[in-house]
Amino acid sequence: MNPSIPSPISSSPTSSSTPSGSSSSGPSPSSPRRSLLVRDGARRFRWTPADIAVAAALGVACGMVFWGFNFAYQAISPILGAILPGIASVLHAFWYFSGPLALLIIRKPGAALFVNLVGTFAEMLLGNQFSFGFVIVSALLQGVFAEIPFAIARYRRYSLPLTMAAGALTALEYGVYLMFFVYQGVAILSPRGVIHMVSELVGGILFAGVMSWFLFLAIARTGALDRFASGRAVRRAVEQS
């Protein structure tokens, strides 16, 4: 028995006067352990100033990527559309890879939402062709769907399959979102609608999922994330290999 945990049957000065028919309730041995687990969970989920600073910097960096990709997409999408209408959607993940990447680095609930919103505001300040309401709602939905796989894992596991699932769910959400608010004249079950959705899912898995995972590993191996649990986990894996 752990000497630091009081025994529930330890004697006390008043124990002899306790009636035999009554039961004295002492602290359960599992209570301190449960309290420690609760405190540890709260500490893991609590955002620190370092988390906020890194998430904000990541959001601004992603916002610059979003802004630059706007120009690249305008040049590439007509070419892809001429080859096969709807296939340009495979590139959309460059607008939402930030959510899975944020969760891999920060490892706190709400990381995808925070980074997506900061990135969207940075992109809007630089200027783009989309309406403010469209991109804000889109960023919020993308963040929510990116969080789902990690929330199911209780923010305890961070792996390539979970990151791919986050990319796939975000792609599914964004593909449907575009069908309702951008491609209203395209039926989901039409050839173009099917190609759009399949391309969106492929892009989400490859770019928002696989690319984000290896980008995170590359950043962590530089030592830039050594103050974070995510960076230390990668460094330990590298040292043990």
Write a concise synopsis of the structure shown.
With 241 residues, the protein is mainly α. It has helices spanning 30-45, 49-83, 98-106, 111-126, 132-152, 160-181, 191-221, 229-240. The protein is globular.
SSE layout and pairing:
Elements: H1 30-45, H2 49-83, H3 98-106, H4 111-126, H5 132-152, H6 160-181, H7 191-221, H8 229-240
Helix pairs in contact: 2-4, 3-4, 3-7, 4-5, 5-6, 6-7, 7-8
Kindly list the characteristics that best describe this protein.
mainly alpha, 241 residues, 8 helices, disordered N terminus
Give the biggest sheet.
none
Question: Low-confidence parts, pLDDT < 50 over ≥5 residues?
Answer: 1-24
Helix proportion of residues, in percent?
Answer: 55-70%
The secondary structure category is: mainly alpha
Individual helix count: 8
Report the sheet-strand fraction.
under 5%
SSE series: HHHHHHHH
Strand tally, please?
Answer: 0
Radius of gyration: 25 Å
The coarse overall form would be globular
Q: If you average the pLDDT, what whole number results?
A: 86
For the record, give the distance between the C-alpha atoms at the N and C termini, rounded to a whole number.
37 Å
